[in-house]
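Q: My labmate handed me this sequence with no annotations at all. I'd like to see what the chain might look like in three dimensions before we decide whether it's worth expressing. Could you predict it?
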Amino acid sequence: MDMEKIKKTLFIVLALAFFAVPPLLPAVRDYAPGAAVFCGIIFSVIWGNPFSKITGKLSSHLLGASIVLMGFGMDLEKVLKAGAAGFVYTLLGIVMGLGLGYLLGRMFKVDKNCSWLVSVGTSICGGSAIAAAAPALKAKASDIALASAVVFTLNAIALFLFPFLGRLLGFSETQFGYFAALAIHDTSSVVGASLQFGEIALETGTTVKLARALWIVPVTLFIACCVADKAEDGKRSFKLKVPWFIPGFIIAAALVTYLPDLLGKVPAAADAVAISGKWLKALSKYLMIFTLFMIGANLSRSKLRELGVRPLLHGVVLWFILSTVWCLAIYFKLVNAA
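A: Here is what I predict for the chain of 338 residues:
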């Protein structure tokens, strides 16, 4: 067997292990999300990702599927209540993120498009927001790659740092869910960090983060109308792009919330729906851990080399300020995360 086949075999075995081992060994379950990302990064940086052409898109789809499956174990009314409670906080975070991002971009003399992509990715939901804003800005591939590398690197750091910080500060699971949802860029990292903190943290973090992700639409519209350079004909274009897993999550939660009542005259069917929902939610956690390994493996040596000093400083300073603000606000109970 040649070296490439050994590498591919080892990669597959490791990925499957992160899916199969946590449900079998409860003792390692809490450490599995962080370990999955860490192992993925180490594997990719040392040996290279042998499936780099497919893991990027595949991990995005698997993450979406995980979030939808999680919806099958959640009460829609509680989801909407949590999303409404986090509305003001997400709005404040996005306004702060875009405003500070603009100022820091000017201060560090970062290219305009790259600066806006880093700011949008930090303020809303990482790679999804960058992908949505890039067409409106008519950003170059190099700008997209650079912004994505900055945001993804900081996401990987957050996966390890935030659970430790939350425990150090004595956050409750609900408080940590808000902290992760408001201060971490990408949905995958919010899920991964919250998953390490507990079930309630996972539900709170995911719900508030999805509400934050919905701001992709108005922010992209704002960029298209007010920020992007005009086309040769003097017009600005706008392309709407909403992550598919958001409506999927809501539909899944609606089914398990209201279908048992509709099937009330058939108790066996109603019970089957409830049991299936719990099973699918449990499955979603292990699928997330599996996905986190592939997400870590997407941070390659080439992406690390793409990190320019100025865009990196822009992203780090912006993230540090926003994270500190939310951390202090939650610690001093200025955010109602009861």
